[in-house]
Recover the amino acids of this structure.
């Protein structure tokens, strides 16, 4: 009988404290899946250029467990690139993405597998509750999902992180998307196929702090919006059009006033107000164009998405990279 294969892909950046706690839980779940459901599971840890001894910890885990594959990137490329690197190396079977900090409970993996076997290609976890996260973090996430859903034609389900299972054909499709600015939530939505969600409670981190501070989240949001919508560019067009219309009307009025009523030199405040306002609008519009132009520039360089330092596949895992 052909057994299904599942690779759990974990991107880790400075998670030396969480991993020793997380791995036994993942291993226990995989052992149960192998025995009860006929799924051959393995784990692929991607060390995203950690500086805190994560790589040592991972090597110890791999030495003790033959189902562990290790991939180390040449530096910190960011979570999206690290996940891409991991998913690129899953050539056989399905992949499940899990956070290294224990916020996505591995105990739910069998539910994801069950949905996959029902025929779904993209099974994603939707957060019911976010424990241990600040009010600001929750409010900004809420606002972000509302904005991106309005602006983008690609479906990005709300409160859905990267905790998800991808079927082999969804993985193959994802591998075809090689853009450098990777907003994964959007890419998952773009490929389509049969999608379903599993509600779950997001737990607090096992240890350490979130790598995403307010500034990084803001940039992440910009990435999402510019990668999956050109609405801001259109907004600049409309804004420019509306301003030009108003300015034209006002210009007529100024000329008429000078012709019919005469014009003792006055109006410095109005003039300053208009100049400052128009200057501001122009700079905002230029900035929007710049955001897109900058991304175009990055794409045009055609650099690889990540560089690999070490790749040590577990027993029975193909070392090929498609
Ligand atoms: N991560 C990564 N590279 C980075 C930042 C984060 O691989 O540059 C990993 C991190 O180790 C964790 C996951 O991405 O497994 C989610 O990160 P974090 O918990 O900091 O984000 P949050 O859960 O707060 O969104
Ligand atoms: Mg986390």
């Amino acid at each position: 009988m052909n057994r299904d294969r599942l690779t759990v892909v974990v991107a880790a950046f400075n998670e030396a404290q969480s991993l020793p706690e997380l791995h036994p839980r993942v291993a226990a779940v995989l052992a149960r899946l192998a025995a009860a459901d006929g799924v051959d599971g393995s784990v692929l840890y991607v060390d995203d250029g950690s500086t805190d001894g994560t790589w040592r910890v991972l090597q110890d885990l791999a030495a003790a467990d033959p189902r562990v594959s290790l991939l180390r990137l040449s530096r910190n490329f960011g979570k999206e690139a690290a996940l891409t690197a991991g998913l690129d190396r899953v050539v056989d079977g399905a992949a499940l993405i899990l956070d290294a900090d224990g916020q996505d409970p591995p105990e739910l993996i069998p539910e994801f597998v069950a949905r996959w076997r029902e025929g779904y290609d993209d099974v994603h976890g939707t957060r019911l509750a976010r424990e241990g996260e600040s009010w600001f973090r929750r409010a900004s996430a809420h606002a972000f999902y509302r904005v991106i859903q309005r602006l983008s034609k690609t479906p990005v389900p709300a409160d859905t992180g990267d905790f998800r299972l991808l079927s082999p054909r969804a993985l193959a499709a994802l591998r075809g998307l090689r853009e450098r600015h990777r907003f994964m939530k959007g890419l998952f939505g773009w490929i389509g196929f049969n999608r379903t969600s599993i509600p779950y409670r997001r737990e607090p981190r096992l240890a350490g702090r979130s790598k995403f501070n307010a500034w990084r989240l803001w940039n992440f949001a910009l990435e999402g919006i510019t990668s999956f919508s050109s609405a801001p560019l259109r907004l600049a067009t409309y804004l420019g059009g509306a301003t030009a219309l108003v300015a034209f009307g006002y210009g007529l009025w100024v000329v008429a006033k000078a012709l019919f009523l005469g014009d003792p030199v006055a109006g410095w405040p109005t003039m300053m107000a208009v100049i400052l306002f128009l200057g501001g609008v122009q700079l905002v519009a230029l900035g929007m164009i710049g955001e897109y132009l900058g991304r175009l520039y990055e794409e045009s360089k055609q650099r690889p998405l990540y560089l690999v330092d070490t790749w040590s596949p577990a027993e029975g895992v193909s070392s090929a990279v498609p």
The pocket of magnesium ion (ligand 2) is lined by residues 99, 101, 103, 205, 210 (CB under 6 Å). The mean pLDDT is 85.
